[in-house]
Amino acid sequence: xxxxxxxxxxxxxxxxxISVGNLIVxxxxxxxxxxxxxxxxxxxxxxxxxxxxxxxxxxEVSRKGKxxxxxxxxxxxxxxxxxxxxEASVIVSEDRAQAIDFVEKRGVSxxxxxDGFNQVKIDKYDILLEPDKILNNYAFPSGPFREFFxxxxxxxxxxxxxxxxxxxxxxxxxxxxxxxxTAISNPKRLDKYLPxxxxxxxxxxxxxxxxxxxxxxxxxxxxxxxxxxxxKDSVKMVGFKLAISEMKLELAIKNEIFTHIDEYIKGYDCEx
Length: 272
Prior knowledge:
Elements: H1 2-7, E1 17-22, H2 30-38, E2 44-48, E3 59-63, E4 66-67, H3 71-74, H4 76-84, E5 89-92, H5 96-106, E6 110-114, E7 125-130, E8 157-160, E9 165-172, E10 178-182, E11 198-203, H6 212-221, E12 226-229, H7 231-234, E13 244-253, H8 255-266
Parallel strand pairs: 1-6, 1-7, 2-5, 2-6, 7-8, 10-11, 10-12, 12-13
Antiparallel strand pairs: 3-4, 3-5, 9-13
């Protein structure tokens, strides 16, 4: 990645592109941040890699809020974004440049790249999200960073959790005995939000899919009344005949952050 950043030449597109990414391995709030950002615009397309999807190539997940595929074709995070944004369109593609070309032929005002910080061949406005605590500044596997810590200086905005944005978690449809079932990275980060009546925890690999029969047996084994999960998990349980309790996550983001982004979009010149 250091060599790529040193020698890559970024292509500037006719559409302003906002990238939301991180340098830390694991969740940092990218998906809820993208949802919060995209909800402010009416003519916006989100382009994501679609990690964990059972499809290849470019796939339109939604068009102006209309869902076009199922979650196995889209991946969990793109489907969550598509279901959360009735005015936006969502596309998944391994080749982000190909997706941008596809979008620009159709016409769009703003493109948001989900997890796009390492897309060094694309000229964009880079937003980097960081957790409130970082154990060390080493790159993986010695530390949590995907690239060298010094790479963060390439970002246009560095947003620290607890300063520029905070999380608000609420639980819908709480029951007396709940089993936590989740397939997110670093699931122990949910612990501080869990109520007392969580009787068991079941962790799957990040982006894994669920089997309804297995979850039913898990409920019966623990004499539990519902499955507790995140929105990223619940989109993979649509149609399950199970009681679901859901942890809703919202980000409170400082207004000045959106002001910076709006100024970039307003002053964007594709010829620069």
